[in-house]
Specification:
Helix content: 10-25%
Bound molecules: S-adenosylmethionine
Strand order of the largest sheet: 3-2-1-4-5-7-6
Mean pLDDT: 93
Largest sheet: 7 strands, mixed
Structural class: alpha/beta
Number of helices: 4
CATH superfamily: Vaccinia Virus protein VP39
Length: about 180
């Protein structure tokens, strides 16, 4: 694979561990802004129906001859293009578009999991991304998921692997029956 394509490197160890802990069976999962699908392929080990979404049409070649459905969708359109869709696992790695963050979280079905890992504020000390629009603030993800989720793991801070960075990570499960 082309090392310059996002999502063609080794999967995140943290995401791997979280997916391992989900157990099964899981029906449908989505990899948001999948790149070449390093995590879509991990998902396909535990999920029967995996959708990978990215706006880059050239990435479709990475999913040819696989069971993963690649959808070329621009997730930053004003009108949320995923309206009405629900998944048992929603995975987001190294991607943030704040105007649709709440819509992204809403993709998680009752009882489903959110696995989110991206860069956090302070990452500019180490390199890119350094644009505040691409960096989560401490506690921001947790605030967005609100009380309809049980937080399984919430981390914000510096990491050394695979390179020095500030990361924000949230692993959470939407409750089956929210209290009205
Ligand atoms: C840093 S890469 C992360 C790829 C993958 N999630 C991973 O962790 O390996 C960001 C990805 O977001 C995609 N992307 C950027 N803007 C997008 C948009 N508006 N709609 C859908 N995908 C987008 C890019 O094409 C790229 O593949």
């Amino acid at each position: 694979m082309n090392a310059k394509v996002h999502g063609s490197s080794e999967p995140s160890e943290w995401i791997k561990k979280k997916l391992d802990s989900v157990g099964g069976p899981v029906g449908h999962a989505v990899d948001i802004a999948s790149g070449a699908g390093r995590h879509s392929f991990l998902l396909s080990n535990i999920v029967s129906d995996v959708t990978a979404i990215d706006r880059n049409p050239e990435l479709s070649k990475y999913f040819r001859d696989t069971h993963i459905h690649f959808r070329c969708i621009d997730l930053e359109q004003d009108a949320w293009p995923m309206e009405g869709h629900r998944y048992d696992i929603v995975l987001v790695s190294n991607y943030l578009y704040r105007p649709h963050l709440i819509n992204t979280i809403d993709l998680v079905s009752p009882g489903g999991f959110l696995v989110y890992e991206t860069f956090g504020e302070g990452n500019e000390r180490f390199g890119k991304p350094s644009n505040p629009n691409f960096l989560l603030k401490p506690g921001e993800l947790r605030k967005f998921v609100g009380d309809e989720f049980v937080i399984i793991e919430d981390f914000f801070g510096e990491v050394e692997e695979p390179q020095y960075a500030v990361k924000s990570r949230l692993f959470a499960r939407r409750v089956e029956h929210p209290i009205e």
